[in-house]
Specification:
Elements: H1 16-28, H2 34-53, E1 57-66, H3 72-82, E2 87-94, E3 99-108, H4 110-121, E4 126-133
Antiparallel strand pairs: 1-3, 1-4, 2-3
Amino acid sequence: MGHGMSLTRFSISLDSGLVRQFDAKIRADRCPTRSKAVGDLIRACLVQDEWQAGDEVAGAIVIVYDHHKRDIVKTLTEVQHDCHDAIISTQHIHLDHDNCLEIVAVRGTPGDVDDIVKRLKAVKGLKHVSLAAGTTGELLS
């Protein structure tokens, strides 16, 4: 929780079965309280809205590939150069003799980020591409 944040208490009524499932989930997730869990859900929901509203967002694209595959490194590099405005940094990790993991930190409009993800997904031979959608944090308290 942020410093000097004032708390508002409110009560909600929910189906008891739903509450049981929720309690089981937050226990499994090691979430300390229902309040924290509900706050996390609300924040996740607001981040989703941020992505839909077209404001500036931030996130990370995770890519896994075999670097021996023909032209794959060249193609990935071309995509990243084309989209350099929205790419903050790239971290390259050698997983083993063949496989590489790349984490591409991105920041821009949801459209820009979506465009990079689509272009990367179109590269032949990638084993995995996924986006961890984040936020610049500016609109969240």
